[in-house]
Design goal:
Layout: H1 2-22, H2 37-42, H3 48-68, E1 72-75, E2 79-81, E3 84-86, E4 90-94, E5 97-102, E6 113-118
Antiparallel strand pairs: 1-4, 2-3, 4-5, 5-6
Bound molecules: zinc ion (ZN).
Protein name: Reverse transcriptase zinc-binding domain-containing protein
Organism: Trichogramma brassicae
Length: 119
């Protein structure tokens, strides 16, 4: 009797596993998209606040480290350009080299980009 119960439970468990693997899971926050690690970490509205906190913490660490290394650092300066307002996260200057860490304000879920320019 126990053997047949265990066998049936094992089959049901196996069927449930196969079903969950085969079917994509929709985001629990109601985004209408597949819940992937990339979506949860970078795109879901439910984790947006956490992304901002993580981004700001990383910027603080970068600014602190750059200053310790002798860089002159400005955080989120505003530059009015022909293409519009640009607000890089960090602008660091040392020995006539400017390093600028940019984010696209319209798409915070995209990865940060870094540009380097000679002064
Ligand atoms: Zn979502």
């Amino acid at each position: 009797m126990y053997e047949s119960m265990l066998s049936r439970l094992a089959l049901e468990h196996h069927a449930a596993d196969a079903e969950s693997v085969a079917r994509p899971i929709e985001c629990r926050a109601g985004c209408g998209t597949t819940e992937t690690a990339a979506h949860v970490i970078q795109g879901c509205h439910r984790t947006h606040g956490g992304r901002i906190l993580r981004h700001d913490a990383i910027c603080r660490i970068a600014v602190s480290s750059l200053r310790q290394l002798g860089w002159s650092v400005r955080q989120e300066p505003h530059f009015h350009t022909r293409e519009g307002l640009r607000k890089p996260d960090v602008v660091a200057v040392k020995d006539q080299v400017v390093r600028c860490s940019m984010r696209k304000s319209s798409a915070l879920h995209r990865p940060l980009t870094t540009r380097t320019a000679e002064k």
